[in-house]
């Protein structure tokens, strides 16, 4: 009796087992099946170029709709996917899906895809990116890869080689969440990133006093002197927009402009933008 019960889905909810641990198990088990069950989807959040005054890029963000748990946050399931290695398969799905979708957008709009450091352990990452670009027809120059700081990146020859080979394809490399890790600055020295994305915690602190403005100003200056473009994440208010614009920030992303939206809504947004650009052209 005990044996057959042990194999049912309910064996995760063993009496006395910590609730967090139980949830973790359910997530881990569910993730293994998420792709085949078609439970993953991408949403896209616009990045607005302040010089161009238009949407220049969309960041692809992963969503998981689970039958019982509802929509699970990536903050919750990505770490588990990384620990179990499932991120490799999931990351490949994200990359392919993002490039396929972006290939239907206008030629001056890029897509940004988040990569986990675990994906760099796989020597074939460069080949995978090249194959997905070929298969989807998306030009390499329209793909940005976002990487967060992590120990794995530190002075790792193989990772650096992979980054250089991706760059050689024409792909852009962005440093995500800049300023949150303890070695942000040394990463800038180890690889010539194309873009620095300033973590949204600095934006959130802007309104309260503090030194966030000084830090944002310094990071933008640093980026520019290193020939890197700068993006402010988490821009939610006009005041924050004005502050980063005044400092010469190149690009903004945040709820002020738009939350992440579905692929259909992206097409609608791009149509509205094209209509607006046309009107501006006619008027001038
Ligand atoms: P991230 O790459 O830094 O993505 C930005 C996150 O900030 C997104 O959360 C986005 O919804 C949120 N955000 C954007 N604008 C605002 C704003 O104005 N205010 C606030 N409060 N939040 C804003 P999301 O979608 O929950 O993703 C969380 C993190 O999960 C991402 O942070 C990224 O590190 C990771 N992630 C998401 N999708 C993927 C993926 O496909 N692969 C990997 N490896 N990681 C992913
Ligand atoms: Mg990102
Ligand atoms: Mg980010
Ligand atoms: Mg973040």
TrEMBL record:
Coiled-coil annotated residue ranges, if any: none
Highest taxon listed in the record's lineage: Bacteria
Regions crossing the membrane: none
Protein name: EAL domain-containing protein
Lineage, broadest ranks: Bacteria, Pseudomonadati, Pseudomonadota, Alphaproteobacteria, Hyphomicrobiales
């Amino acid at each position: 009796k005990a044996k057959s019960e042990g194999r049912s889905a309910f064996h995760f909810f063993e009496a006395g087992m910590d609730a967090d641990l139980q949830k973790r198990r359910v997530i881990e088990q569910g993730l293994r099946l998420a792709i085949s069950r078609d439970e993953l989807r991408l949403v896209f959040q616009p990045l607005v170029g302040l010089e161009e005054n238009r949407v220049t890029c969309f960041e692809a963000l992963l969503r998981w709709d689970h039958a019982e748990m509802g929509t699970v946050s990536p903050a919750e399931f990505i770490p588990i996917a990384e620990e179990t290695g499932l991120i490799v398969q999931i990351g490949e799905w994200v990359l392919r899906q993002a490039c396929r979708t972006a290939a239907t957008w206008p030629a001056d709009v890029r897509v940004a895809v988040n990569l986990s450091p675990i994906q760099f352990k796989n020597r074939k990452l460069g080949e995978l990116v090249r194959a997905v670009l070929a298969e989807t027809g998306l030009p390499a120059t329209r793909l940005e890869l976002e990487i967060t700081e992590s120990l794995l990146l530190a002075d790792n020859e193989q990772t650096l080689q992979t980054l250089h080979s991706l760059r050689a394809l024409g792909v852009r490399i962005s440093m995500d969440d800049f300023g949150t890790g303890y070695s942000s600055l040394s990463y800038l020295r180890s690889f010539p990133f194309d873009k620095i994305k300033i973590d949204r915690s600095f934006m959130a602190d802007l309104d309260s006093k503090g030194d966030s403005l000084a830090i944002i100003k310094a990071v933008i200056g640093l980026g520019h002197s290193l020939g890197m473009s700068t993006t402010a994440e988490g821009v939610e208010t006009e005041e924050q927009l004005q502050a980063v614009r005044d400092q010469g920030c190149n690009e903004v992303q945040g709820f002020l402009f738009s939350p992440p939206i579905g692929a259909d809504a992206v097409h609608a947004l791009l149509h509205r933008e094209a209509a607006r650009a046309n009107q501006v052209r006619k008027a001038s």
